[in-house]
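Hi L.,

As promised, Ribosomal protein L13:
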Amino acid sequence: MSQAIGNTALAYARVWHHVDASDRILGKLAQRIAYVLMGKHKPVYDKGIDCGDYVVVTNARNIQVSGRKEEQLVYRKHSMYPGGLKEEKFTDLLETKPHEIIVHAVSGMLPKNKLRNRRLARLKVFGGSNMGIYRNNILKRWEDGTLSDDYILKLDPANRFQKPERS
């Protein structure tokens, strides 16, 4: 009389998600990324267990903000030395380091606990469309929630149907 008790390793398996940040609102995108990094989309979610997935964000340079935040938003950091306050406007940071904008927004939406840095390490942000070696790991896209074509062909090579054209 054998029964499987508890959650299996498959329930905690980490999946790689791809997000195209072109013309997406920063706050809504960061909230959804934080949700996936924490693992709240999984039925086995527990706040004390790190069961989130990996997220790869591309085209961070094309992110949008609502209202007048593009002119008014300022990022500040301090070196803890006298006179060490550094300020950088959103538009300047978008040109030089677009990945820091998304990481900062997602970091603010994650819980402030010991798991925060580990969750942020699973976030990979790229300014352009080239994601390098991470392209091979992607399983899910956020546009329609489907699995990637390469992954479907790996599972079943005979399943070579054409996707219907969207109008």
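The longest strand covers residues 16-20.

Thanks again for sending the construct details.

K.
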